[in-house]
Amino acid sequence: MFHYRNIKINYFFINNNSFKTLVFLHGWGQNIEMMQPIAKPFYEQYNVLIIDLPGFGKSNEPKEVWSLEDYAEMIHALICSLELEDVSLIGHSFGGKISIIYASIYDVSQLILIASPYKVARKKISFKVKVLKVMAKMPLFHNWALKTKQKMGSVDYRNATPRMRDILVKHVNTDTTENLKKIKAPTIILWGTNDSAVGIENAYEIESFIKDAAVIPFIGRTHYVYLEELNRTVEIIKSFIR
Q1: Which CATH superfamily is domain 2-120+175-241 in?
Q2: What is the pTM (predicted TM-score) of this model?
Q3: Fewest 10 Å CB contacts: which of 8, 24, 54, 112?
Q4: What sign results for the dihedral spanned by CA atoms 178, 105, 185, 9?
């Protein structure tokens, strides 16, 4: 366990005394186990670090509403405590968005983004949601309106604790476009063409902001492309980090 800002962070680390370390960051609502299939092929050759991001797996929830920068700073603190150098980041979805922040601030050798949202998704607000927002301001209907709105939210939002809901809202309302422009590390962007959670158009937008980046589309695959095309994903990463 790693102690950071009065919380415990669970992580899995294999030290091969390698010159290179691969850091794997999972998506929202996931944990170390979700990244092990893609990390396991690298266990014998490189140092491998997989983290239960705070609020998930066996890690504690943050004691405050963390920003993506807070998550990136925590990861950097752990990397420094383990005295790791020549770090490559592999981030899926939420973990990918954190990786964007990290790579815009700290040195990274390579960056692999897998179905990573990067901007604020603009969704049309329904009439019902507009009415609920108005009613939430009325003392008589406040609690009812909030509970009703929560039931209408995403699965991630409904399943989260109150603090993690606030962190999720902060995450989805964070635009990392300016961070992308600061990334110097060579980057590959892996995406399923049938990703209904984060459309593949986002991949090409990300590519346009990073100086040295390339999109690799996986035809017919979804948001969990790295598991659906595990062998191909691993081979692409192996070739890239060499």
Answers
A1: Alpha/Beta hydrolase fold, catalytic domain (3.40.50.1820)
A2: 0.87
A3: 8
A4: negative
